[in-house]
């Protein structure tokens, strides 16, 4: 199964990057999973004027991003919460594409410096991914107090993190297997 991870922030000093690296490392150790990090800072998509499929002049790297989303069996989004929502750069990246997300499980990982782990952002992203035709999994992985809960290298400081991420991955992989099986011709 190919499950890429979208890092939904381009902010300088972003703390969500260490969480994305943690997810990449842990998900990459799952034998049946191939994964990679799709860092929006590296793709640098301009403000969307029209969905990719409706353009004859795609922005640089937009087609590459699209191809990876199309190939994906599921997607994980790692994003910080900014002002009770998610970053505009992530909304821009979601809006560029539409059929690429259809009928794909989406795992959402939210990050905050405060104590609530980005739950407002999580609620909003669930609605947006449903509107894109994707299926946000019921499990989530909110990270509160990111500066204290993870070291700079992405090492979790809380021993309960391993149990939480295992439950998140269990739900993500269950949904991915189910959706993959449902798409196979009978």
From TrEMBL:
Pfam families associated with the record: FMN_red
- Molecular function terms, GO-annotated: FMN binding; oxidoreductase activity
Membrane-crossing residue ranges in chain numbering: none
Highest taxon of the lineage: Bacteria
Q: Which InterPro entries match?
A: Flavoprotein-like_sf, FMN_Rdtase-like_dom, NAD(P)H-dep_reductase
May I have one GO cellular component term? Answer: cytosol
Domain named NADPH-dependent FMN reductase-like is located at 3-147
Q: What is this protein called?
A: NAD(P)H-dependent oxidoreductase
What is the species listed in this Swiss-Prot or TrEMBL entry?
Candidatus Korobacter versatilis
